[in-house]
Amino acid sequence: MAKVTIGKKACAVNPLKMSQPIGGSFAFLGLRGAMPLLHGSQGCTSFGLTLFVRHFKEAVPMQTTAMSEVATVLGGYENVEQAILNIYKKQKPEIIGICSTGVTETKGDDVDGYIRLIREKHPELANYPLVYVSTPDFKDAFQDGWDKTVAKMVEVLVDKPTSTRRDPARVNVLPGCHLTPGDIEELRTIFEDFGLEPSFLPDIGGSLDGHIPDEFTPTTIGGIGLEEIATMGSASWTIAIGAQMKRAAEAMQARTGVPYRLFERLCGLLPNDEFMAFLSEISGRPVPAKYRRQRGQLADAMLDAHFHIGGRKLAIGAEPDLLFDVASMLHDMGAEIAVAVTTTQSPVLERMPCEEVLIGDLEDLENLAKARDCGLMMTHSHGRQAASRLKIPFYRIGFPMFDRLGAGHLLTVGYRGTRDLIFALANLIIADREDNHQPTPDTWLDPWKDFQPESPDSAVVAPLH
Amino acid sequence: MSSLSATIQNVFNEPGCGKNANKSEAERKKGCTKQLQPGGAAGGCAFDGAKVALQPLTDVAHLVHGPIACEGNSWDNRGAASSGSQIWRTGFTTDINETDVVFGGEKRLYKAIKEIIEKYDPPAVFVYQTCVPAMTGDDINAVCKAASAKFGKPCIPVNSPGFVGPKNLGNKLAGEALLDHVIGTVEPEVTTPYDLNIIGEYNLSGELWQVKPLFDELGIRISACISGDGRYKDVASSHRARAAMMVCSKAMINVARKMEERYGIPFFEGSFYGIQDSSDSLREIARLLVERGAPADLLDHTEAVIAREEAKAWAAIEPFKKRLTGKKVLLITGGVKSWSVVAALQEAGMELVGTSVKKSTKEDKERIKELMGQDAHMIDDMAPREMYKMLKDAKADIMLSGGKSQFVALKAAMPWLDINQERSHAFMGYIGVVKLVAEIDKAIYNPMWEQLRKRAPWETANNNWQSRAIAQANAEAAALAADPVAAEAARRAKKICHCKSVDLGTIEDAIKTHGLSDVAGVRTHTNASGGCGACAGRVEDILAAQKAPAELLQAAE
Q: Which of residues 66-105 of B touch A (CB under 8 A)?
């Protein structure tokens, strides 16, 4: 059981956190033919866009209401109206997803009211799909923006079912933002192997998996379609992945009566056993032979890798759900979660398998990793400077991953995904030992240095360099 | 905010800028910031521009006062290189929360500065204002002043919140911050007659170091580079340099000009992209330094170095020329380097089939026109499908562009090379042009393209995405050709002024209705060219085309 502490510094150094509206826009990117629109100054969009483009190595649609200083002070009605009209005419998306930002929230723009007025004034937009989510930058984090947006999508885009008849094969899947397009594809295959028909909301596996599009569109090039979302009320189950998705799953249940099951983790042996058992139960089919084999492979990978991962001191920085999932899996493999840093509050944090979880930044992660002598760092690409200063192996997880390829296809879910993650981490540790820790005649000159009584942690305020 | 708006007005009054100097008093007041189009804008904000311009200063702490978006979403994303301190790559932000929005964030900012100085002890802290604290009224000038006095360390306010305008304005506001608070505040320990400032060079991918050995050989000392691989002390004492070179044509013209005004440092605008440009720039530097008192033999030394380097570069390009002559390049780049890259490519025998000069000044465009002759094909805004069609019609063998527009080319299985700020290759100076040519050669001749251009086994010739895209484009063209009314409507719908969103038809009608004969008249009636002014040339062309039939008619009578 972990104690959750909130950093007390006035200055965040090397932020781990990214902003809420970007998380919200990310969710819209999982809808087919969508255009995310940030209501803020154009930099708000430009920074987010650059993040996505560098992470996925894909063209990413995203627009801005381009708020000027004057417009901000007077209120942004005209900018929102113009932006919607321009996008409606030019890019012709199937849906426009609007997120607010810090600057328009500071002014207090009533975007829901604006949208009502715009629909009245422009009859062609009366029933046009517009979804608005309030996501001020000065509150919460990326993951929160995603979960609020998905919940709003459910409330606005899912039809209330007219009959109580349910399709036994159909399941709704509400994935957290910590899953990659590769994870979504892996899950889609698993569901289909059980004879189930999954609807992913959102489905970044369809839009950001790096495919060649059928047609050049200035909107998203795949993802779940609006007609499929509308009928999600006919599914027999909703499966939410990651604690962040509880809000959306509850919204779905409230709106459609579809019961939900929340899987907080899909990385590791036992969480996947539970997942398989559940799929078997709801589909009425035995677990396919393929997954029985994969389970054996994962068990064997754990056996082979525990020599390397067991006892490793891990410093991990990630958003709550990813942190909880991956850190718990490594804890189950015998790693010591020596440092855990995250971005925002979540009920899973106090169940982390470590003493303390800090809501902080990468300076905290680095200083604590140094003080506690960690031998493995896991966080997003911005951890690269810290890892190279500490000279410890570094594995990139989460968003953004801008300095390596294949970010969209990294797996953490399923038996197979867990197996590959374990191999990758063990290999990193082996390489580190071979490259940096070969024994020399001097290795044992001070043989008792690792057995000194521990000194209290005082390095948190030390500078990085 | 009043001092900020005064600064912005001041920045708009830029006699060093040819475009600006030609404007009327009233127009100048409106400034050269592009009026942003909601739902149709792209590019960074003024804060982004300020940060881009100053962040390459390597030894100072760059502290962003704002919510997490401004720094959290953007830090450590620049390819500038440092020969020393890495503190510039550290992300510092006050990450303000709701409480700070309600009660003000000045105290947090002050404490943040204190923490940074205690932990990192940089020679200076640059504090960047952003939209939210600008709205709530946090006075970063006052906080910086108090912190400077208390901690005995320069704290530099950079007043450039995102919503005051686009990136380009931010570049200039960053320059103003340097002029107001940094340049001239420290006297240099040594000066030489060979001291040169380089302004507007960011040392992306370490490309300044492709040229620096030549300076070293000639004994030319870079007293300050603003801001690539820059040091606070060097910039603070840069007012004693003898001459300056301005590299990035628009970004920091105010710095170059005001340093000339205040400290008598003459500057010229030059580039190190391409062989000819490199030689011209070296010559100009030597000339200015000698004018300012450097020994005259610098000129001869410079000529000797130029002759040697040019010979080496030509010899290195020679083997590529055979492979690249006649290869067509589609160049899509934001302004500043367009014309110099064009020169470089032509040196290797390549042809340009089109170029986007979205961010270029008119002067840049004229230079491209000059370089490319009368066939210059200007493409201001190309839709992805048109872009693909152009590539597909084998009009281009490779596309050169910035990071975000690459995907059309790549997905169409066309070679592509990054020439904007996120690129990982350095292309400056004589060696840089050879590297650029080598990269183009490597991209064009990669054997992978052949495989990727083959159909998948289940695709037929007429049923793949490529043929569908072409068919769609052709169908649209055919529909227009068959329907003169629609064709005319499409012709008239062509966007002329992107800032004010004015199409060709509106301008033609205004010219006819009001008998307009100049750009100012068109602007008054349609608003066209009332934004950045870059479309004035296109408006002139329209005026000329409209006038021509009338004159012909008169002549016939």
A: 66-77, 86-87, 89-98, 100-101
Q: Say how far apart CA B52 and CA B437 lie, in whole Å.
A: 27
Within its chain, how far is the Cα of A249 from the centroid? 16
Query: B447 CB near a chain A CB, below 8 Å?
Result: no
Cβ–Cβ < 8 Å for B23, B15: no
Residues B45, B168 contacting (CB under 8 angstroms): no
Q: Do residue A461 and residue B119 have CB atoms under 8 angstroms apart?
A: yes
- pLDDT of B455-465, one tens digit each? 888 887 777 76
CA angle at A298 for the pair A296 and A301, rounded to the nearest 5°: 110
pTM of the model: 0.90
**CA dist., res. B375 & res. A240, Å (int):** 59
Whole-angstrom distance, CA of residue B459 vs CA of residue A131: 38
Instruction: Say which of B40, B43, B388 has its CB closest to residue A90.
Output: B40
State mean pLDDT over B236-262. 91
Contact A111, A49 (CB under 8 A): no
Under a CB-based contact definition with an 8 Å cutoff, are residues A272 and A290 in contact? no
Task: Give the residue among A242, A99, A270 at the shortest CA–CA distance from A178.
Answer: A242
Q: CA torsion sign, B196 to B76 to B106 to A341?
A: negative
Q: What are phi and psi of B80, to 5 degrees?
A: -65, 155
Closest CA to B251 of B55, B91, B3, B41: B55
Token duo for residue A151: 């919940």
Structure confidence at residue B380 (pLDDT): 43
A108 CB-contact burial (10 Å; exposed 0-12 / middle 13-18 / buried 19+):
exposed
Share of chain A residues as helix, strand and coil, in percent rounded to the nearest 5: 50, 15, 35
Q: Which helix (H) or strand (E) holds A396?
A: strand A394-396
**Which residue(s) pair with B80 in the sheet?**
B204
Using the structure block, give the residue that is written with the tokens 């054996």: A296
Mean pLDDT, chain A cut into blocks of 10 residues (465 residues total): 94 97 98 97 94 92 94 94 94 96 95 97 97 97 98 98 92 98 98 98 95 80 96 97 98 97 98 98 98 98 97 98 98 98 97 97 98 97 97 97 95 98 98 94 87 59 62
* CB contact at 8 A, A166 and A235: yes
Whether B472 and chain A come into contact, CB under 8 Å, resolves to yes
Contact state of B86 with A385 under an 8 Å Cβ cutoff:
yes
* Distance of alpha carbon B204 from alpha carbon B92, whole angstroms: 21
Residue A120 CB partners (closer than 8 Å, separation 6+): A126
Given a cut of 60, whether residue B487 has pLDDT beyond it is yes
Instruction: Closest CB to A138: pick one of B132, B407, B411.
Output: B132
Strand spans (E) along A278-375: 313-317, 336-342, 356-359
Q: Is the per-residue pLDDT at B375 higher than 60? A: no
CA distance A383 to chain B (A): 11
Tell me the C-alpha to C-alpha distance, in Å, between residue A67 and each of A38, A43, A61, A188, B345.
10, 10, 19, 40, 39
What is this model's ipTM? 0.94
Among B83-87, B140-144, B369-373, which range has the highest average pLDDT? B140-144
pLDDT digits (tens, 9 = 90+) for A93-131: 999 999 999 999 999 999 999 999 999 999 999 999 999
Single-letter amino acid, residue B111 = K
The C-alpha atoms of residue A365 and residue A359 are separated, in whole angstroms, by 10
Q: How far apart are CA A23 and CA A179, in angstroms?
A: 13
Q: Which of A13, A25, A389 should be substituted to probe chain B, the one whose Cβ sees the most B Cβ atoms within 10 Å?
A: A13
Single-letter amino acid code for the residue at B127: V
In angstroms, rounded to a whole number, what is the distance separating the alpha carbons of residues B186 and A290? 72
